[in-house]
Amino acid sequence: MVGTDLDPEQIELAGKFNEKRWNLRFIEADTTRLPFEDDEFDLVISMKVIHHIKNWQTALGEIRRVLKSNGYHLFNDIALSSTTSGLLRILIKNFAAFTFNDILDWYQKEAFKIEHQRKPVGSILKHFMIVAQK
Length: 134
Description:
By secondary structure, the chain is of the alpha/beta class. The chain has 2 domains: 1-30, no CATH class; 34-133, Vaccinia Virus protein VP39 (Rossmann fold, 3-Layer(aba) Sandwich). The chain has 4 helices and 6 strands; from the N terminus they run βαββαβααββ. A 4-stranded mixed beta sheet has the order 3-4-6-5. It has a two-stranded parallel ribbon with strand order 1-2. Helix 2 (56-66) links the parallel strand 3 (41-47) and strand 4. The longest helix is centred in the middle third of the chain and has 11 residues, at 56-66.
């Protein structure tokens, strides 16, 4: 298992908390340019990270690239309402402003099969989960 983060301090912290687990390694990596081979992983889990990436489609494309055929993406994040998303796209340049439907549309375009979804819960920041198979 490999954990990634763009922040070297988070990588160091993860290593300290998991130093006795031989099957884990942590590396500094940019989700829009993952340092892995095509079709390398059976499962990719992204937990509340994609909303931090302005080019979220590129990040999801990288996840798609590194997933094996029939591999799964467990995607847990926050989405915005259509109104809030539209405003943030104009006002904030370094934040991914997407709606739940934007994510579902991306999966459909990329021919993923949605195995499970927990629709957004919340008011402004809507927490959701999707399990999709490549």
